[in-house]
Amino acid sequence: MINRLTILLCLTTLIVSCTSVEAKTRPVLHEIEGYSPRLQDSPSAIVEEIDEHSSEDSSGTELTATFWKANSFARMHEKEVTDLKIARDARTYFSASVDGFISWYTAEGFVDTWQISNIPVKQIAPHPDGTVIAAYESDGFSVHRVSVWDVMQKKRLYAKRFRDSVTSISWSARGTYLFVGNTSVEGITTLDGNTGSLKTVFAKSPGIVSFAATGASETNIITYGPSGRIVYTDIQKGTERAEYPGPTSLVNTVLFANGLSLAGYKDGQIYIVETTTGRTLRTVSTPIPVFSAAETDADILWFSKDEEGRIILHDGSDNRILPDTFADNEITAVTVNTSNVFIGTSQGAVYSCKRNNPANQDSTFTAVTAHRITRIDDIHSDGARLFVLSDGALFISSGPGRPPVFAFDRIEGNRVRMHEGELFFWSTTRTAPFVKTSLDGDTRTILHEPVDSIRSVQLTGRYASLVEGSRLITVVDIDTSRVAFTYQGAGIQDAVLIHTNKLIVSKSYTTISPFVLQYIHTETGETVPLKADGDLCYGLKLSQTELNESVLHAFLVRKNDSGAQTELIKISVDHETAAQAIIKPEAAYGDEDLTAYSAYDGKGLFTTLGKTSVTALYTENGTQKRFNRASSLPERVIAMDSYMVTLNHDGSITWYRMNSSVPEISAVFTDKHMWMEY
Question: 0.70 cut: is pTM over it?
């Protein structure tokens, strides 16, 4: 049974796409009574209000599709825009970001956004027909992956992982081939555009390729690389037709003037190079290494700064001063068609403006993406109600379709747990007190002042086990605030009190303490390693407990020369013989996953292991169910009586009914402090 679950989870996380069949519905905006920038000082809502009104219909303002696209869901990237590319139809364009999202747009404005990765998307390349996009995902260190996505279905078609960093991705003119320039010995990999299978095009390696493009007939390809070589290759024969020496080490290369010129950046200058000779036609000095050109443009569009620090857009004879909006908002990406300029920024926004305005006039820019969300920091549940923590305020929801009730605010923390009728708050990002409150927030008790941010909190009976930083465990009596036990070590991840005097600890491998699971007797100080071989154990939590036995789950990462594997393990502990815990794998993912999460509801184990979606494992009958993901990847999961809820990477939440695998609705706080369901 365990083997079957392991194999199935590996297949679903590694092979299947991240498709969601979430139905598109018009969004609804709700005001939250008692909570807004103007009303935050009003009396807090009473917790019981949500139960009294849970059966009533809540009125929301339904937005028209036009207003929705133009205003509400035209959402900015959470982080820097890394790339902007326009499709061959010159009407569809895409943006990529460090936040792992790809957004797409048409001439009418914002269309949709979709998270394809939990690591940055460095480059994108739209297929010529605009319905498929290739993306280069990389953490800048060990992960270099090119994935290809169906834009309309939000489905990954195929992916290929590279050992070396990728320098460029581009499609042939008809989409027959996908070219991936990289820093390997070969310098470029050619994939079949439809299947992702390897194709042989170059009889001789052109060297490291940082730019590649074909003619309209796909009979020839031009490549350029750091060596400065401009090479023309016959695609059918694989032979070089011509080679010209050009300037070396140019980056951000673009082709324009109907293929007769290319531009690249180096050492504060843009080089304009003739592709049929390799001769440098001219250079342009600029501190902003961002420029673009349409295929038919005679010259490039680029940016500079004047003596007053203002940014100037240069587009042929058109020189325009950019608005003050860009003064503290670095331009990080740009693309153009014959009539528009599209600009991406370091703050995640995308702007557009018309080309060919009268010379020396200020530009009129339109914010294509204008709105941020106020992130939801954490969620927890007592089974019937969902507790939502956002920006220092607590809200309570009884389900989708109605706004949550504002409970109270002024919370110094980004994590919440409910335990035995009380709420507990702490911070994982800064040094803040560990606090206990009543459900209405009127009674607040500081239980502990930590010496560092709190990595992990586990609540057992009337005790809380805290991990401060990565070196200190503190067990606190939550009735008296008394510190009952402390322990110092290295690389500590989690600590779970399974009995009044028995503690199970997960940690990372160190040369001094190579055991990633330990049992500690809090009265005698006895420390015994548990038999779990690996490099890191994290996410340790109590799943269920009986009179003499406890069951815990955790994630175990193992590394070797060929790669890494992450296992979801079950730890069965007899209180009398805790040092002889039985450890068994429940599921496995054939790669490293350092952010997986699990939740147990008494029947099944819900996990985000695999970095794509939530899978429910029902170990008693050996079955599992995979929940289709929403627009953002799930980060944490909570099991309720009737719902499963995910907290997503972008700070939104998504509701699922337990008997369905399809997202019912997603929700988030807007930057105007309204509740938005979509």
Answer: yes
